[in-house]
Amino acid sequence: LYSSAASDVYKRQALCYFPDLNPQVAYRKLQYWIDYYPHLREQLEKMGSGLSCRTYMPAQVQLIVGAIGEP
């Protein structure tokens, strides 16, 4: 199993929202929520976040928190 430090950081961010899930499931669930909220994925991509991006910048985190709420 391959795991890079960057993807681990991304999964840790998802675990803030879903602490009882394993990291991969938490990551997928956060991605689902991002897609659920209208235009959130689009706004994140405009700020430089794509599907291959494994970390969020502080402004992107604020955008997610604004849409989904605090973890």
Can you describe what's shown?
It is a single chain. By secondary structure, the protein is an all-alpha fold. 63% of the residues lie in helices and 0% in strands. The chain is built from four helices and no strands. The chain has helices spanning 5-17, 23-36, 40-46, 58-68. It starts with a helix and ends with a helix. The mean pLDDT is 82.
Mean pLDDT: 82
Rounded Rg: 12 Å
**Parts with pLDDT < 50 across at least 5 consecutive residues:** none
Helical segment count: 4
Return the structural class: mainly alpha
Q: First CA to last CA: what distance? A: 28 Å
Measured as a percent range, the helix fraction is 55-70%
Envelope shape = globular
Count the beta strands. Answer: 0
Largest sheet: none
